[in-house]
UniProtKB/TrEMBL annotation:
MF GO annotations: kinase activity
Keywords per UniProt: Kinase, Membrane, Phosphoprotein, Transferase, Transmembrane, Transmembrane helix
Alphabetical list of Gene3D superfamilies matching this protein: 1.10.287.130, Histidine kinase-like ATPase, C-terminal domain
Organism of origin: Mariniflexile gromovii
EC numbers for this chain: 2.7.13.3
Organism domain of life: Bacteria
Protein name: histidine kinase
Occurrences of domain Histidine kinase (ranges): 304-523
TM region(s), chain numbering: 6-28, 266-289
EC category name: transferase
SMART domains registered for this protein in UniProt: HATPase_c, HisKA
Pfam families hit by this protein: HATPase_c, HisKA
Record's keyword annotation contains RNA-binding: no
Length: 523
């Protein structure tokens, strides 16, 4: 896959994921707004219901009191009669129909102490209705009706009538003089609000209060906070001018939680599925990047292996060509020398192949590693003998400082020797000058630390973090001045971990490296 296609795929996937998240957020936000509007609508409906119910209750109480007084025989102070005549002529039937709707107005005066207000008397107007319908045959002459100055004459095709008792002159004037706590109680408001809110599915705590001209009254719940413009409100007790100074306010401390709870299921599902998509996308992206890196590392590995094999193969071919030479084939000493060279190069290629196979078996858990009680100092000495000639040839040295009094470990002789050899070999390869290596041991608790320190080229911090990864080698461009294929330290890490140990490295560029192996000791 080319780099451009790879970047394009990542860009498209990222844009798709961001689009999904934005769509989810948009719909969730829309749902929250809809729930807020629905909540607001229901609360306002409840408040209007409570206000109307209280006003009707108060009105009914006054009507019943006044009706009761009238029924007990209170005398009428003044009366007035008004008649409304409606005349309808039908030309087809030659009939004239007269409708009369008469009203009798009776005025009463009562002692105001009966209604607990600060006035001497109360004037009440009682209106009664009386209806009559007459039909006359048209005779060509006009009808002679005796109409008083209070009567009206209308020519209509239809009419409507009412028959009711009203107290239009006194009710609103009476109640406007009363203090609010005598008109309604907080228990009544609490009960009405609770019942109606539960009917509409709003089963949460609320606080309420009645304010008059922006000031708090005695009618309020215990925990109602200061006047807040964001509270739900409705006007109450309108006067004769259809205006009101009283306002019922309701606060819901947990309204946001209630609104969210109604769509919490949808929000949780959205979050869960979006999280799954993000995790899947992140995992896919990680695998893509990882596979791309692995592909690059494998390409680098193949190039290194090719370079590693080219030299031995060329050396073997030259040695064989030399042996074929008639002048050389008779020279036993040269033949033995060339054969030894062929064997050495073949051994070198075999070791590289073994390293690859060893790592493969480790990953498949097919490598059988048996462990015995061994002295770690002996393993170090054995490993030093494997690289001693190379160090001497480069005029370097390996010094040991065995300061650990307890050095018995449970280990595999062959594999752990290879671990130490690999680290020593790296120290030699990455020492541009004569290799100078120190090996230290010390006891820390129930563990033994093995430190292998060199004074070579070292490595960057980024390389130190990845040096134990398979196939990893620090980039040096196209320069192959240090042979290798990034498997030796990966093998070291797997073997040490199989021995319940831990391996790490401390390094600084151009100042050398120190590899530290920690193993549990046995008594």
């Amino acid at each position: 896959m080319s780099k451009k296609i790879f970047v394009l795929l990542i860009l498209l996937m990222s844009l798709s994921l961001i689009g999904i998240i934005f769509v989810q957020a948009y719909y969730i936000n829309g749902s929250v707004k809809n729930e807020k509007e629905r909540f607001k609508f229901n609360v306002n409906k409840v408040l209007n219901y409570v206000s109307n119910t209280i006003e009707k209750r108060e009105y009914s109480e006054y009507v019943y009191k006044l009706q009761d007084l009238i029924s007990k025989g209170e005398k009428v102070d003044t009366t007035a009669i008004r008649n409304l005549y409606i005349i309808k002529e039908d030309l087809d039937s030659k009939e004239t129909t007269i409708y009369r709707n008469g009203t009798l107005e009776e005025n009463y005066k009562f002692n105001s102490s009966l209604f607990d207000i600060g006035l001497d008397t109360i004037s009440v107007k009682r209106i009664l209705s009386n209806r009559e319908t007459k039909v006359y045959q048209n005779s060509g002459s006009s009808l002679d009706l005796d109409l008083s100055t209070n009567d009206k004459l209308l020519l209509l095709d239809k009419m409507s009538s009412t028959d009711e008792i009203v107290f239009e002159d006194v009710y609103k004037d009476l109640t406007s003089r009363l203090p609010i706590h005598k008109r309604v109680t907080k228990e009544e408001i609490q009960k009405l609000l609770s019942e109606k809110l539960k009917e509409d599915g709003i089963n949460i705590d609320f606080e309420f209060a009645i304010y008059s001209n922006g000031l708090a009254t005695r009618i309020r719940s215990d925990n109602f906070e200061n006047y807040d413009e964001s509270a739900f409100s409705v006007f109450m007790f309108y006067n004769e001018s259809n205006q009101s100074t009283y306002k019922l306010l309701v606060n819901f401390p947990d309204d946001k939680r209630f609104i969210l709870s109604s769509i919490m299921g949808m929000i949780l599902l959205s979050v869960i599925f979006t999280s799954i998509i993000i995790l899947a996308y992140g995992s896919a992206l990680y695998q893509l990047v990882k596979q791309r890196k692995i592909s690059e590392i494998k390409t680098d590995f193949i190039n290194n292996m090719t370079h590693e094999f080219k030299t031995p193969i060329a050396t073997i071919n030259l040695a064989l060509d030399a042996i074929k030479n008639p002048k050389v084939i008779d020279d036993k000493e040269k033949v033995v020398r060339y054969l030894a060279m062929i064997k050495e190069e073949n051994k070198r290629m075999h070791a590289q192949v073994e390293n690859v196979l060893r790592i493969s078996k480790l990953e498949k858990n097919e490598l059988n590693i048996s462990k015995d009680r061994l002295d770690l100092h002996d393993l170090v000495e054995d490993a030093i003998t494997h690289v001693g000639l190379i160090v001497e040839d480069r005029q370097g040295y390996i010094k040991t400082f065995f300061d650990a009094p307890k050095s018995t470990v449970l280990a595999n002789d062959t594999h752990f020797t290879n671990v130490i050899v690999n680290i020593l070999d790296n120290a030699i390869k990455y020492s541009p000058e004569a290799p100078k290596i120190e090996v230290y041991t010390e006891n820390v608790g129930n563990n033994i630390l093995l430190k292998i320190k060199d004074h070579g080229s070292g490595m960057s911090k980024a390389a130190a973090k990845r040096v134990f990864e398979k196939f990893y080698r620090e980039h040096t461009g196209n320069i192959h001045n240090v042979k290798g294929h990034g498997l030796g330290l990966a093998y070291v890490k797997r073997i040490v971990e199989d021995h319940q140990g831990h391996v790490s490295v401390e390094s600084e560029k151009d100042k050398g490296s120190t590899f530290i192996i920690k193993l549990p000791i046995i008594s």
